[in-house]
Amino acid sequence: MSQQGRGGKICLATPSSLAIHSTKSSEPILTYELSIQDMIDRVSETPLSVAEITEGFKSGDEAPFKYGHWEVVRDVCEGISANIWESLTTKQQIDRLCEVIELWPCYATSHHLFQFYVESAQADPVATEHLWGRIVGYLERFGTPQCDALEYVLWVDFFEDQSTCEAAWHGLMCMASDRKVRDRILINAGPVPYVLKKPIYHQMIKFPDEHEALAESLAHSKQDYFGDIDRKDARKLVKRLDLPRSDEFVAYLKDNL
Length: 257
Hints:
58% of the residues lie in helices and 2% in strands. By secondary structure, it is mainly alpha-helical. It has a domain at 1-144.
């Protein structure tokens, strides 16, 4: 069973020499000193432009960057995370990493958000809340490469790592006011402890129009390598699903629970 496509609404200034307006009117307008191109110029041993990297980039591929390009993008991301380019706040570092993801959406870039959270952002409650908000924004953009990249990093990093799983789950679910966003989180939450998912599942079962997402989430909870499921409780839920036996997730659950 493969991960399905994913989905938000985020406005990023691409080159960062442009002014970036805060979403809060009380905050000042921020102009970054360096663009992503400036950072590339500082780490690349040969002339290389954002456009050249983008031209050779293939979203969704296991190796999305052309030979030699990934090392440059990696060094840009690591420079942002280490704050060697500019004197940025933790929130601003998150936004700058999101600029890179916006340009080249893939696991290779989005993984840096997870690394930055583990190494720096989780110690800052304000920055952590900002990070969850940015991720939710990407999930609203269902079907885009950016959404796909963030769903994947949620699944294999934030949720599979038990040291970050619970905080990520609560932070994201608190911000997921849109049901579609909540469903995208649930579908990628196979590794999240079942005890955390159970109350939401038991609410969803009351509404037939939520059964498709419930079935898919249960299936991933069972099928994922690190998935967590209470088989007894899940079997009871599956019996109440108002979905045809031919539904791929219902069929999988009936055969495997």
